[in-house]
Specification:
This protein has 51 residues and is mainly alpha-helical. It has 2 helices and no strands. Helix 1 packs antiparallel against helix 2. The longest helix is centred in the middle third of the chain and has 22 residues.
């Protein structure tokens, strides 16, 4: 999700489409939050591990 957020940010910035840029920020923030929760061992989505 972090990679998707970065890709959307770049595409939105290059094309000048504000909604794509905003979606990129949202995806990036959610990806970082999920990565932090997973790193500290908190179950995310009912799973403690991710494969």
């Amino acid at each position: 999700m972090i990679v998707l957020g970065i890709i959307l940010l770049v595409v939105g910035w290059l094309t000048g489409i504000q909604i794509v840029w905003t979606l990129g920020i949202v995806a990036l923030v959610i990806g970082v939050i999920l990565a932090i929760l997973g790193a500290i061992g908190r179950p995310v989505g009912g799973r403690r591990t991710w494969y």
